[in-house]
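Figure 2 data, in text form.
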Amino acid sequence: MSIVPTPRRAALAFSVLVGLGLTAAHAQDTAPAAEHVKTTELQTVKVTASKRVENLQKVPVSLTVLTPEKLEAFGQAGDGVLQLASRAPSVYAETSYGREFPRFYIRGLGNSDFDLNASQPVSMVYDDIVQENPILKGFPLFDLAQVEVLRGPQGTLFGRNSPAGVIKFESVRPSQETSGYARVSYGSLGTANAEAALGGALGGHWSGRVSALGQHRDNWIDNTFTGKKDALGGYNERALRLQALYEDGGFSALINTHARWLDGTATVNRANAITLGSNEFVPGFQRDKVAQDGRNQQHLFTWGSNLHLDWNLGNMSFTSITGLERATTYSLGDVDGGYGASFHLPMGPGFIPFPSETADAMPHDRQITQEFRLASNSQDRLNWQVGTYYFDEDIAISNFDYATFNDHALDGYANQTQRTKAWAVFGSVNYQLADDFELRAGTRYSHDKRDFRVDRLLSPLGAPPLTLTANPNDSRWSGDVTGTWTLSPNVNVYARVANGFRAPSVQGRVLFSDFISQAKPETITSYELGLKSTGMDNHVRFNADVYSYTMHNEQLTAVGGDINITRLINAKKTEGYGAEFDLEAYLTPNFVLTAGGSYNHTELKDPNLAVAVCGAQCTVLDPRNADGNALIDGNVLPNSPKWIGTLTARYGIPYGDSGEFFVYTDWNYRSEVNFFLYDSAEFKGKPLLEGGLRVGYNWDYGRREIALYGRNITNKRALIGAIDFNNRTGFVNDPRVIGVEFRAEL
């Protein structure tokens, strides 16, 4: 029986949150003086979630900020942007592409589509430029000022394809002051990380900053079929960012150019890794061994540039943001994850019904964006902004299928092209109606048009050549209204209503089918009650919220199944509700703790929606229709853990005049996840808890540091994804990595 949120439950949950905030504020008011005790206060966190600089505690939206210290700790072992999974409440991420195609989920909403033109409901914004294509979303994390995670629809200011939320990445900007750092580490599996940044005055009104990253891991997975040791699992990644800033009175111009190179292994698929009837690994499974007859390789190059122009016009400011992003990639993998097939013995591991070796390439991706904004400068009671936005994307995709038994000869080939143009106008206003009450409201009108074409030139099934087209377009309004009540100088509560949408989608994988699939626009309406509070003499920051949403025509991807066809579908209705919190506290001057958690309930509401089930042997738990397809009404969304938790703790022991020994640990947890739309005993990931540890010494007031580190320190082994059309194929998380790191700052 499903639990339906009611106004009484929402009010009760919210009253608990407010009570916690008021308790913290009361503790601040009544705490005894302790001047003789050295204290460390929480610093004010500035964010740009509303496209103007504001105090985190004054922004009425569910928002988590990830600091450079956290990002560096997570990324020591070469982790990419996927390190953000479960690092903030309600945030999850996964991939079936390796390091280049992250798929993010917020409050259970995401997209498991692996096509290179897939759209996602979580928008990724790097230095104010949206990264629309999933290949662009994987840019490495280095030399960042912070990452902001905005939960819930953000349609007013961020527009299309942000109904679940937005993740914003802010690079460290150039300044006239000389600053920089260098950081190097080396660990097990030949894991090496090196990054550096240097910035300062360039003369006159100019300043600049250069940042660079290099990451490497040796191959560490043996291929027992070919007999090659250390055949798979490695990568070489490099990234560069160049910035120049011109400032003269009320005018500034920031130029940003960046690039990324990646060569290595795509996701390593493991044939029949899952036991029939359960989600346990098969007996004898080894993470560092596979048996494959297919090939695996991945190459990527992306680059882009953007220009930020700002004019201070006195009572208002005018901003222009122009962006260009380009990408090209090729990714080849052994999809069946094994060797041989039923018509070509021997085969294994387990039963392989047919071989599958495929590749996707994107020889061309060009994205141009332009935004103009006119905004009031900070006023006592009224603040506003209006703007226009333009988006133009042109991509080309190639799909390949190879005959494993015929010296990997090409036996399937198709080309896709897609041109997307979108524009929008938007505006928002904040008005202080009373000393203790502020009202915020905004609206946006968007138009989206897409021209899609696919040409199948060679079919693995011997079908004739084929050309198909689609031209979806859509126009709609989105907006939000928020009221904020100030209960005390340290506590405020807010109520927010917002809606958003995802533009129509097209998918054209026609190597094994004769049709393309389209999904109608999805829309969402969300309700949120939140609390922002600080207390204990500014030693504790506690923020929390409860939410509920209804989504209509959610775009879903029915992946694989026994028909080996991936298609887009719409669910009539999806409901979700939950609660989230963030906590940061200095328990003593030398002991700081952060924690975050969320409960997320999702449920599909479409009695007639059915999808194909596994082609491999598996135990389907859903009822079936007359065609043998699974009826998924009432199921949770794929990759939507009900519980997410994150914890970090740092304890320092001062030594000498400027030194400190320290211990830092971080842990993240997510509950069980279902990999597909249908429910089965095999294709779901067990609850996962992973931890990291840093033990080290810093000196010269923190400007020099050496530390031992460990990632996945318990060496937890877990399924993190699966493929269902061929066999019970799975892929797993990385093993434990232990290493040493040195860091120096100017």
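Caption note: The first strand starts at residue 46 and ends at 47.
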